[in-house]
Design goal:
Structural class: mainly beta
Shape: globular
Largest sheet: 8 strands, antiparallel
CATH topology: Protein Transport Mog1p, Chain A
Order of helices and strands: EEEEEEEHEEEEEHHE
Radius of gyration: 16 Å
Strand content: 35-45%
CATH superfamily: Mog1/PsbP, alpha/beta/alpha sandwich
Number of domains: 1
Number of strands: 13
């Protein structure tokens, strides 16, 4: 399974800057996007995982792990030149987890940005019965207090957080890793979000 995704326009000073379009036309993100023509890169995805009303496909290069909690629908290691990162997807039942806005604010509180960094921008996109809301943060990712990655402060790190709202209830995705790794895997993360659809 391969999804073409628009490529970046160049190295941005912070991942929180306006994100690129996942696609064009009527399903464009509610905020941000770009008008310049951009190169596309194909992202290979694994076979979709279906649970609790949602189907989603991990990037093929990511290494799926056994979830460490019953609330985690999936976990995976994210490879990259900066060292490995991790992603966890949480599901708390229909209407559970606090909603998109509250989780975006929680993720923002977990990252200390570099001085003078632009304010991160929340993005959203709705298509095929699924709404995706996500944010990209860069800086020092604080050590987790609930056993998630990282267990110590991660300097020059990045956190990608996303809420996927589907008929069965929202999923919450938190991907954290060294900044270099997460920049390399950004297109793969967006392709994963794009693959989300209601469970058939």
């Amino acid at each position: 399974m391969t999804i073409p995704i628009a490529g970046p326009r160049g190295r941005a000073p912070a991942l929180g800057l306006t994100l690129l379009l996942l696609a064009c036309g009527a399903d464009a993100p509610a905020e941000g996007g770009g008008g310049a023509q951009e190169a596309t890169a194909a992202v290979d995805l694994s076979e979709p995982i279906s649970a609790s009303g949602l189907s989603i496909a991990l990037p093929a290069a990511w290494n799926r792990l056994e979830p460490r909690s019953a609330m985690r629908m999936l976990e995976a290691q994210i490879p990259g030149s900066g060292g490995p990162g991790e992603i966890s997807a949480y599901y708390f039942g229909p209407g559970g987890g606090g909603g998109a806005a509250a989780n975006v604010e929680r993720w923002k509180s977990q990252v200390v940005p570099e001085p003078g960094a632009p304010e991160p921008t929340t993005q959203s996109r709705e298509s095929g019965g699924v709404r995706r809301t996500w944010i990209e943060l860069e800086g020092t990712v604080k050590a987790s207090t609930i056993g998630s990655f990282p267990t110590t402060d991660l300097h020059d790190g990045a956190l990608f957080g996303a809420v996927i709202e589907a008929p069965g209830g929202p999923w919450y995705l938190r991907a954290v890793g060294p900044g270099a790794t997460m920049r390399e895997q950004r297109q793969a993360f967006l392709a994963m979000l794009e693959s989300a659809k209601p469970q058939g």
